[in-house]
Amino acid sequence: MQRTAIYPGTFDPITNGHLDIIRRAVKIFDSVVVAIADNKGKDPLFGIDERVAMVQEAVKDIPHVEVEAFHTLIIEYCQKKKALALIRGLRAVSDFEYEFQMALMNRKLDPEVESVFLMPKEKYSYLSSSLIKEIAAFGGDVACLVPEGVHHRLKRKFAEKKERK
Ligand code: COA
Predict the structure, then answer these.
(1) CA–CA dist 122, 137 (Å, integer)
(2) Taking the model in full, what pTM does it have?
């Protein structure tokens, strides 16, 4: 039986911390699907197609990884993909409460799908997509914190925004 795990998130944009989690997950499962939520509530900087493209580019050298957008409950998406597990990253204690709540709710919706928590390298434990966007918006250097393609897109996005002002 193929052991598939889903790694869901908004990925606005994907960071090196997310990539670290994906690399750990492929060591445990036969395949990993990075599932990108539209998450309009978070008012993403990048559209869903751009986020899918950025993740696809970032994982192109990691075998057994698929990237897809999803528009349903994550648990329904897991069922559709016949996934055994949901992967989430835990960066610090502050992530725990929200993750615990989501894991238990997802378990209530489908007890067959396990939530699995992986810790990124310490050097990524302070990273978040919002912080990356904030630094990039002010022209700060995020080159060592995100994949190269994301770095270019961030620069382009904020240059376009500046031009429009
Ligand atoms: N490295 C860097 N940053 C990380 C990280 C890591 N390893 N792990 C988490 N983060 C950051 C993200 O960058 C993000 O930062 P931001 O808030 O500044 O954007 C933050 O932690 C959490 O984001 P993310 O991991 O993308 O999760 P999310 O909270 O945006 O997404 C979903 C949550 C999409 C998985 C969840 O809302 C969902 O499942 N939605 C579908 C609908 C559903 O089923 N709802 C019921 C759930 S019980």
Answers:
(1) 25
(2) 0.95
Residue of 36, 72, 129, 154 to mutate, ligand 1, most atoms within 8 A of C-beta: 129
Residue 91 annotated among the catalytic residues of the structure = yes
Could you list the residue range(s) of the whole structural domain that residue 23 is in?
4-164
User: Which pLDDT tens digit goes with each residue over 92-139?
Assistant: 888 899 999 999 999 999 999 999 999 999 999 999 999 999 999 999
- Among this protein's residues, is 128 annotated catalytic? no
- The pLDDT tens digits of the residues spanning 29-83 come to 999 999 999 998 999 999 999 999 999 999 999 999 999 999 999 999 999 999 9
Residue 120: DSSP 8-state: P
Task: Assess whether the C-beta atom of 104 lies below 6 angstroms from ligand 1.
Answer: no
Q: Number of structural domains, the chain?
A: 1
Strands (E), 4-154: 4-9, 31-37, 65-70, 85-89, 114-118
Is the minimum distance from the CB of 102 to ligand 1 under 6 angstroms?
yes
Query: What are phi and psi for residue 48, nearest 5 degrees?
Result: -60, -40
SS3 call for 38: coil
Written as six digits, the tokens of 43 are 């008012």
CATH of the domain at 103: 3.40.50.620
Active-site residue, 18 included:
yes
